[in-house]
Automatic annotation (TrEMBL):
Gene3D superfamilies: 2,3-Dihydroxybiphenyl 1,2-Dioxygenase, domain 1. Residues 5-128 form the PhnB-like domain. It comes from Paenibacillus rigui. InterPro entries: Glyas_Bleomycin-R_OHBP_Dase (IPR029068), PhnB-like (IPR028973). This is PhnB-like domain-containing protein. The lineage of its organism: Bacteria, Bacillati, Bacillota, Bacilli, Bacillales.
Length: 136
């Protein structure tokens, strides 16, 4: 059995992690920089090698991307499902600050709220709520 953890490569892992902990509630658990490694490159000494944070009750790992530039893409979306509408709206609104709403958070035909946004760091988030039985 495996344990899944999202690993995000960033242009500025510290700033991005702070944004997520403020938007979703949580905290940065640990940060290790390249400067803590023996024989580290001088230009990388302040770069984040590994960062662990908890946001919205979920553990994420992050790192500054030093080997290649970050390229924003659409292959992976991070999806957070909330128990209440209020929690979903709060997370959606905070993550959307400085980003781009692609599909506003609204009731979906399958019985939950659903919204899609790209945050200011180029990460695509799907925010939803637990599905409620649809009345017929």
């Amino acid at each position: 059995m495996a344990k899944y953890t999202t690993y995000i490569f960033s242009e500025d892992a510290r700033a991005q992690a702070e944004f997520y902990t403020q938007a979703l509630g949580g905290e940065i658990q640990s940060i290790m920089t390249h400067g803590q490694l023996p024989d580290s490159r001088e230009e990388w000494k302040d770069k984040v090698m590994h960062l662990s944070l908890v946001a919205a009750g979920v553990t994420f790992f992050m790192s500054d991307s030093v080997f290649q530039p970050v390229q924003h893409g659409n292959a992976i979306n991070l999806c957070l499902e909330y128990a209440t509408d209020a929690e979903a709206y709060e997370a959606f609104d905070k993550l959307a600050e400085g980003g781009q709403v692609k599909d506003a958070l609204k009731p979906a035909f399958w019985g939950s709220l659903f919204g899609l946004l790209e945050d200011k760091y180029g990460v695509t988030w799907m925010i939803t709520t637990e599905a409620k039985p649809v009345q017929s």
